[in-house]
Amino acid sequence: MMMEANTKEKILAAASELFAKDGYNGISVRAIARAVGITEGSIYNHFVSKEEIMDEILTRHEQELERAVPSSRELIDSYGREGWKPAWAVRAKLMETAPASSGLHIILILMNEQYRSEKARNIVTKYYMEEPVRVTCDLLRHIEAQGKPLPGDAMTLARAYQYPIFCMLQEYEMTVSLGGDVAPVLQKIQDHVAFFWKNIMKIDYDE
Asked: Is-above-0.85 flag for pTM?
């Protein structure tokens, strides 16, 4: 049973790498089997099709995101504490120490699959666009409720903050995949975060 579980994990790992490199349509079940070092028939002991392999990869990533995405309450509770930093300032700093992120393959898969797969498209829309905007909007409304006027509508401000980050995150992942220097991209993220909170929101934080 343990060997079967290990084989399944190896299939998923190999498929993730191959799908990220050559795309879903560019990879066959035979190619995945060859990468794992098993027969093509052995793949079907674990998955009924290539589509099911992709579905499992996407489902696992969705579950990881559900666990990892900060809640509005967490950000609201952190606001105003000594040394407070916006969530993206913290994340960009962490990315400096681990530029070759372990999630690179799945990001590249999502970038390609969102145009083919409804599930991939829903993950990108919900977790990379809608949820970050919603959580940021909740934080901004909390700040407003504390007596600080906002320089505009909370939802519009949240989009203005998060959408550039979404684009720069894609630039970051593409740079990593090409073996380029990620420092300029990370600096763009830090500059955007600092500009928004200091120049638009007029809120300072420790860099």
From this structure: no
